[in-house]
Structure formats: structure tokens, C-alpha cells
Design goal:
transferase, Aspartate Aminotransferase, domain 2, EC 2.6.1.1, alpha/beta, Asp_trans, binds ligand PGU, 3 domains, about 450 residues, NHTrfase_class1_PyrdxlP-BS, Aspartate Aminotransferase, domain 1, 7-stranded mixed β-sheet, 16 helices, single chain, Aminotransferase_I/II_large, two-stranded parallel sheet, globular
Length: about 450
């Protein structure tokens, strides 16, 4: 066995040294698991130089779609990935997006030149206004730098790597549970990941006491990852009063908030209401980071459009921060793609298009809320044992059902319903037609003798 390299003992080493250590640890883990020499050389010239590779497991979320696609059943249902579907079960391109795309195609002056490292300038300005509010003092005082990144994931990764290079505390606290990609993103960015309590399985609600205790005992200066709204996977958000407690604790301990805003507009149906927690942290004058995604709220999943904003204490610091973020981006992917950001900028720039977007967004959020009620009613009418009120209490795209991995397996095998093993279902993947099938499956999973 090769001993893992100690990350903790390397506190004072350079960023690239620490990154190498982390990668070495990943490699050591893999290597120990296959119990062979590092990079065995091929014995014959016909052997592949990659012959030693193990097949990696599918991703716990995106792999659900892979399994779903292979299933020939006509009743199959994909409730794994958080992607909006219509009542007909089809992916949705918003009308406003289609219209803007037509306009962009017809604009003769448009070209395909490289963007600057920070992306489309107008997109960045308007994205900051969307999350912080048009009248935000931080924007007016030029204390915010916003950089277009590759959707939410890319924004988190760039932000994480910027912090690993330039911030004095390299520990980030993420909620337990959280979106499965968070720990991987931040570890590979060069941060050390720890968790804080968030969800209480017994109440299927927020473990507020646990959260306060864990953040209260985090070392001063630690980074804290917060879901801006519609927490994934639990669908449980703090109340405004609880947010205020969290804000005071974070500021009093000089922790650094890093918001992940992947669902603005999807929780309440209102872009402003969903941005409120972030805005209260900006209003107190403190510093923070926000990763924004337009995957869900504009349905631009595959266009990979998002933004990283860093709110600083002064315009001078913000501009120096931006210069350093550019050094993170340049060797990673050089500069971001044009198309998605041009669509977003066109919609955010024009009052009519913006209004049209908010109506379509609200319709998506309302359909999800409607599905919650329908599923709850269907389980009640079947007399399914248990209190299912969390289905209507939880917020956003997902319901954290409380079903265990064994029950999920049963539902997949017997009912062709695909979901993640933690019991999360994407309510956006349900329709009036498929609710009865899901309710039958849940009922059978909960009542069957094992
Ligand atoms: N942050 C959170 C909390 C998310 O749920 C997601 C997407 C992202 C960031 C990243 O989204 P981008 O597409 O990079 O903007 N989570 C979805 C989508 C599938 C996935 O895992 O990427 C999900 O089903 O959890």
C-alpha cells in the first residue's frame, strides 16, 4: 500500500505543490484499489499503454440518465437529473430563448471571434444586477467583479481555484448533504472540504441547531458554501429569520460566504425573492462570492452559461481580484463560449424580453409546485404509510423523499423509475400523466415485506 500524501502537513507549500499532492492522493487511492504498480509498462508492443485502467463508475446523477436511456420499457421515467420537462415529458426551450436565437442568427454584424478571458461584458454586468439587484450599492461602487464562466459548475471551480491560490484559509465547509459534485469541484480546485450539518432526517427539515454549532466551531476565515435557494438535494431552505441568524454568525466569525445560485426563480417563481438571502449578505458591506447558473432558470443547460461574481470592499481590490481570476481562467479554457451568454444578455437587456422570461420561468416553477400537490394527493389517496407532507413543504426542483437505496433499486427494477440512490426525485421530470405510476411505485416500495 502506498501511504496517502498528507495535505494537512503541506499548509505552507505553494498552490501548485498542493494541487499535485491532491492529485497524487487521488492517484494513490486508485492505485491502492487495484493493488498494482504505478503505470505498469506494457509487456508486448500490442498492449495498450492504458491497459491498466479500471473502468470508472458512472456519475451518481448523470449516470442515472445513461441507465434510463438503455431501458426499453415504454413506461420508464427519468426523475434523476434536475432538468425541466413539459407536461408531455419533453425538454423545453423557452419561447423567449428561441426568439432571441433567431435574432442573433440574423444579425449580420455578429462574428465568432474569441471573447475576452472574462467573457461578454454586458452579460457580466447584467448577471450581477440579476443576483444583487439593479440598485445594489456594491455594483454602484464598482466593488463587484463578474466573470462569465462555464455554467454553475465552471463558476464554482474557478471561484474555488481563485480562493485556493489567494485566500488565507483553504478550508471550505459544505452542507451535509449537498449536490454530489461540490466536494469534487472544491477538492480538485485545491481546497480542503469539510461539512456542516444541514438536514435532519427525522423532521425532514433543516437541522438549524446543528448548522449553527458546526459553523460556530469552524476556524475563523473558513469559506462556507451556501445554496442561495432551493437547496439540492433536500429542497429545504432556511426561513428569512434563520438566514439572518446565519448571516450574523458568518460575519461575526469572519467566515467567507460562497453562494451557489443554480435555481434563482425556481424556488418561489420570483427572481427577486430567491435572490434575497444573497442580497442581505451584500447589504451588510461584507465580502462574498456567488456562482450563478442559467442552466435551469433559462433552460440553457447544454449552452454552459454562468457567472462568478466576487464582491469586494473597494473598486480597487475588485479590479485586482479580476486580474487574478483571469490568470485562473486562461490556462483552464482560455475564454468562454459566445452563444449562451449572448442569449442571456439579450434577454436581460430588454424589458419586454425580460418580462416574457419571468412569465415563462414562473410557469415552470408553478408546474413543479402543482406536481408536488398531485404526488402528495396520490399517496394520500393510496393510504401509503408515512407522513408525506414534506413533498409539499420542500422547495425547488427536488423532493428528498426519504426512500432508501434499496427502495430506489426496487422502483427502478420493477417500475422503471430512475432516480438517484439518496431518494431524491426531480419534480420537474414528473407530469400529471406519470404521477399515478410514481405513486404506485412508492406505495409498493414502502409497503412491501423485505
Ligand atoms: N449547483 C447546484 C446546487 C446544482 O444542483 C447544479 C446542477 C449545479 C450547481 C451545476 O449546474 P450547471 O449545469 O453547471 O450550471 N445539478 C443538477 C444537474 C445535473 C448535474 O449534476 O450536473 C442536478 O441534477 O443535481
Amino acid at each position: 500500500m502506498v501511504p496517502p500524501v498528507s495535505f494537512e502537513s503541506n499548509r505552507s507549500s505553494s498552490f501548485s505543490d498542493r494541487r499535485l499532492n491532491i492529485l497524487a492522493n487521488h492517484f494513490v487511492t486508485l492505485n491502492n484499489s487495484i493493488d498494482s504498480n504505478i503505470f505498469p509498462s506494457p509487456t508486448a508492443s500490442s498492449d495498450s499503454v492504458f491497459a491498466h485502467l479500471l473502468r470508472a463508475p458512472e456519475d451518481p446523477i448523470l449516470g442515472v440518465t445513461v441507465a434510463y436511456n438503455k431501458d426499453p420499457s415504454p413506461v420508464k421515467l427519468n426523475l434523476g437529473v434536475g432538468a425541466y420537462r413539459t407536461e408531455e415529458g419533453k425538454p423545453l426551450v423557452l419561447n423567449v430563448v428561441r426568439r432571441v436565437e433567431q435574432q442573433l442568427v440574423n444579425e449580420a454584424s455578429r462574428n465568432k471571434e474569441y471573447l475576452p478571458i472574462v467573457g461578454v461584458a454586458d452579460f457580466n454586468k447584467l448577471s450581477a444586477r440579476l443576483i444583487f439587484g439593479a440598485d445594489s450599492p456594491a455594483i454602484q461602487e464598482n466593488r463587484v467583479t463578474t466573470v462569465q464562466c462555464l455554467s454553475g459548475t465552471g463558476s464554482l471551480r474557478v471561484g474555488g481555484e481563485f480562493l485556493a491560490r489567494h485566500y488565507h484559509q483553504r478550508t471550505i465547509y459544505i452542507p451535509q448533504p449537498t449536490w454530489g459534485n461540490h466536494p469534487k469541484i472544491f477538492t480538485l480546485a485545491g481546497l480542503s472540504v469539510k461539512t456542516y450539518r444541514y438536514y435532519a432526517p427525522r423532521t425532514k427539515g433543516l437541522d438549524f441547531q446543528g448548522l449553527l454549532e458546526d459553523l460556530g466551531s469552524a476556524p475563523s476565515g473558513s469559506v462556507v458554501l451556501l445554496h442561495a435557494c432551493a437547496h439540492n438535494p433536500t429542497g429545504v431552505d432556511p426561513t428569512p429569520e434563520q438566514w439572518e441568524h446565519i448571516r450574523q454568525l458568518i460575519r461575526s466569525k469572519a467566515l467567507l460566504p460562497f453562494f451557489d445560485s443554480a435555481y434563482q426563480g425556481f424556488a418561489s417563481g420570483s427572481l427577486d425573492t430567491d435572490a434575497q438571502p444573497v442580497r442581505t449578505f451584500v447589504a451588510d458591506g461584507g465580502e462574498l462570492l456567488v456562482a450563478q447558473s442559467y442552466a435551469k432558470n433559462m433552460g440553457l443547460y447544454g449552452e454552459r452559461v454562468g457567472a462568478l461574481s466576487i464582491v469586494c470592499k473597494s473598486a480597487d481590490v475588485a479590479s485586482r481580484v479580476e486580474s487574478q481570476v483571469k490568470l485562473v481562467v486562461r490556462p483552464m479554457y482560455s475564454n468562454p463560449p459566445i452563444h449562451g451568454a449572448s442569449i442571456v444578455a439579450a434577454i436581460l437587456r430588454d424589458r419586454n424580453l425580460y418580462n416574457e422570461w419571468t412569465i415563462e420561468l414562473k410557469a415552470m416553477a408553478d408546474r413543479i409546485i402543482n406536481m408536488r400537490q398531485k404526488l402528495f394527493d396520490a399517496l394520500r389517496s393510496r393510504g401509503t404509510p408515512g407522513d408525506w407532507s414534506h413533498i409539499i413543504k420542500q422547495i425547488g426542483m427536488f423532493t428528498f423523499t426519504g426512500l432508501n437505496a434499496e427502495q430506489v433499486s426496487f422502483m427502478t427494477k420493477e417500475y422503471h423509475i430512475y432516480m438517484t440512490f439518496d431518494g431524491r426525485i426531480s419534480m420537474a421530470g414528473l407530469s400529471s400523466k406519470t404521477v399515478p405510476h410514481l405513486a404506485d411505485a412508492i406505495h409498493a416500495a414502502v409497503t412491501r415485506a423485505v
